[in-house]
Amino acid sequence: MKAFLLAAGLGTRLKPFTDHHPKALAPVHGRSLLEWNIRNLQRFCIFDIVVNVHHFADQIIDVLEREKGFGSRVQVSDESDAVLETGGGLKKAMPFFEGAGTLLVMNVDILSNFDLDRMLEQHRQSGAAVTLAVQQRETSRYFLFDETRQLRGWENIKTGERRIPGDFQVADLGPYAFSGIQLMEESFLPGIRQEGKFSLVDVYLDRCVTQKIIAWDHTGDALLDVGKPESLERAATLFPDTIQ
């Protein structure tokens, strides 16, 4: 099993920090978000990690080299020429995932105490191609699932945009907020047909009619999208300095 940390974003909401640094190096208790997530993955015996980089890429590479990957085997997928979003970044990094079997993909600016072992157990028992970590919470964008927790659509309640492939009725679908964490089988990757810059949301909506993409509801777990300066302060309160 391998992990892919999405760290190439510009982090515009974290200005002024990201005027001079990548968001992956934003500190919580004196440790970067990158270190927090690498060490958290080690708790679940995941030591093979790929990190994509774009904004101040050299800073992330320097830290990983200096800290020897914080004890993990970390490879870098360099997007210095152009940021490719979540889907494009995953597709560019595909050569690194050979032999992974199952792949964990998560945003580097997400902090959570979610239980990866439980998520992985459900993923494998279900036979799903992809499992999306979700919660019942307020947000502007939702994945839509049917009664069997299979993905059937997506909506943005602020703009009114709704995307439901197939013949599913929105009244029969339940909205869940995405946690920025997903498990996928390596066999899912070659079928990604999009090119260049694109979101994983596009991939999931493209494939959910023909492949099993399910929800793992971890409502109640601590989850924080560290996207704003005030979120860094909240992170220091929600997540005590317990990593070793």
Q: Roughly what percent helix? A: 10-25%
Shape: globular
Biggest sheet details: 10 strands, mixed
Estimated radius of gyration: 17 Å
Low-confidence stretches: none
The appropriate CATH architecture is Alpha-Beta Complex
Separation, N- and C-terminal Cα atoms: 22 Å
CATH C-level name: Alpha Beta
Strand content: 25-35%
Total helices: the number is 6
List the helices and strands and how they pair.
Elements: E1 2-6, E2 27-28, E3 31-32, H1 33-43, E4 48-53, H2 57-66, E5 73-78, H3 85-92, E6 102-107, E7 110-112, H4 116-126, E8 130-135, E9 141-145, E10 151-156, E11 161-163, E12 174-185, H5 200-207, E13 213-217, E14 223-225, H6 229-238
Parallel strand pairs: 1-4, 1-6, 4-5, 8-13
Antiparallel strand pairs: 2-3, 6-12, 7-14, 8-12, 9-10, 9-12, 10-11
Helix pairs in contact: 3-5
